[in-house]
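Schema walk-through. Below, the input block comes first and the output block second. Nothing else is stored per chain. Lengths vary across the set, and this one has 219 residues.
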Amino acid sequence: MTASPASNPTYGALTSHGNSTNIVWHHSTVTREARAHQHGHRSAILWFTGLSGAGKSTLANAVNSALFEQGMACYVLDGDNIRHGLCNDLGFSDADREENIRRIGEVAKLFVDAGVVVLTAFVSPFRSDRDKVRALVPEGDFIEIFCDAGLEVCEQRDTKGLYARARAGEIKDFTGISSPYEVPESPELRVETGTGSLEDCVSAVLGLLEARGIIPQAG
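--- output ---
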């Protein structure tokens, strides 16, 4: 049985967004609050940002494992993985980077509504793009985590050989070499992924989540 938007309170008003016209927002009958109660924790976006090789994916996956072991609903959106599918039509120009992050932000927003702690590991070099994602969700739901590792350290860790290729001119618009990285001015957390241990970095992230009431206090 199909109900029209006018007769169903779960529907919003007809609107237009971008090139999409005559669309409505459908409000789920299962609320975010109900999901949080069932899961035993709040949802949030953990946005890991930093240079290529700074340890974003390693840290995000380690935190994800720690949360999973505690029985929490969590998922990692990894930059390379996303470009295998959702964003495989995008390159690395400034415009494509912006669109890449816009899409990820919208996906992450859906995860938050689903009651999941979503961890994203993207270079996301531009502050304005990160701020746009922050603006998609209520205050406190976007946790920016700056993986601070210097360029020299990142190049030493360059298992893919990307920095060497970028310096040789084989890769254009490579962040840190031929394209800028805008360091977060006031991230919720800054972790020394260039010098600190993975264990300490994971503890710092979990400690912040506990302090903000996103996950229960350990022990």
